[in-house]
Amino acid sequence: SVPACCSARYNLALLAFLGFFLLYALRVNLSVALVDMVEPNTSLAKNTTSNVCPEHSSTINVPRNTTGEKYSWDADTQGWILGSFFYGYIITQIPGGYLASKIGGKLLLGFGIFGTSVFTLLTPLAANLGVGYLIAVRALEGLGEGVTFPAMHSMWSSWAPPLERSKLLSISYAGAQLGTVVSLPLSGLICYYMNWVYVFYIFGTLGVLWFFFWMWLVSDTPETHRSISRAEREYILSSLKDQLSTQKSVPWRPILESLPLWAIVVAHFSYNWTFYTLLTLLPTYMKEILRFDAQENGFLSALPYFGCWLCIILSGQIADYLREKQNLSTVCVRKSFTLIGMIGPAVFLVAAGFIGCNYALAVAFVTISTTLGGFCTSGYSINHLDIAPSYAGILLGITNSFATIPGMVGPVIAKNLTHNNTVGEWQTVFYIAASINLFGAIFFALFASGEVQDWAVSGYNLHRN
Fold first, then answer.
1. 3-class state of residue 71 by DSSP
2. What are the C-alpha distances in Å from 153 to residues 85, 309, 393, 458?
3. What is the pTM of this model?
4. Mind listing the pLDDT tens digit for each residue in 127-145?
């Protein structure tokens, strides 16, 4: 094998890590900035805060910057603004996977993040023009981000040696979690000391900078890479030689009839239900039930994603160690990691609803819950590459389309269930998330596969005829 340090494939993983870092920073910054963009009396004001738990804030009041423009958007409008992103995001998933297999993932991922960054820079202008413009810009950002995951999967199908898959993919996708970790508190601080427009200007500019580095340093395949060593190129190509298909047309029908693919769809959907419900509503839960104020809130809301980030990096290393050194089968690793990563969070999420006002425990349980979820990255999350490396981008597009629905529906349902912000209502929200998780885990454990499927290899059509 070829040393990992400074190799072309690890450089790709690192640049991808930074790309996804910025991508998620661009995605979540609005949910923080929105608090500052809205006139205080129009948001769900103090009257809905539940009085189950005592108020507790030990912050020194710093004079806060109030120069930013304020808008009078009601709660429903805010819901539409936050949700609009997913309407763009869901549209480009499958086309993204298809395009990546045609023009290559490099351009697609590069321009996806570039487009998202440009629209982020336009966000303050759009907000000034009116709420319709803002919703449109967010949906366009979603369109840009939609192609990124399928494009990345598609690139890894020609870059990642099978036994290094979990490592390389978990490094690149862990950027997303770290982006959430850094962006939540940082956006809060920028809003607090500067002005909310800078949240969009700073992250948007970084995204554009990243784009130039990406275009300059990365290539679609090991064959076309400028500075890759010959040993590494040989190593990657020989490790993938029986795994890729040369046929140009996509076998849509066998893909859609494939049970292992539907196992990933169900797991992906269930996992995202919990993930998106927490991502969009954790700050609300902390503010309304546990009654932390906003500044503590930014750091505490970010804590679970920091745990998840650590877990993703570590579980990727462990998964490949088990497959390579302990000779565990791929399917065994994928199933057990998915089970840990979905049943664990379900248990702790339900527990989090039952501990009353014990703040430390509530934060700890939600953190453990999200952290364990990181195991899924080496579970169902990269299983597309095990069953059909050549079509991994398209498969990810399919599963991610289904998995985006919870992002659109989950928070809306949760909002509707928690009208009075009682602990009981939040327990219901946690119950629903946990039971969906449980179902997804069991379905995946029953029907997943770790082998390259017949329809994904070159000779498939010959045998069939």
1. strand
2. 22, 19, 5, 19
3. 0.83
4. 999 889 999 999 999 999 9
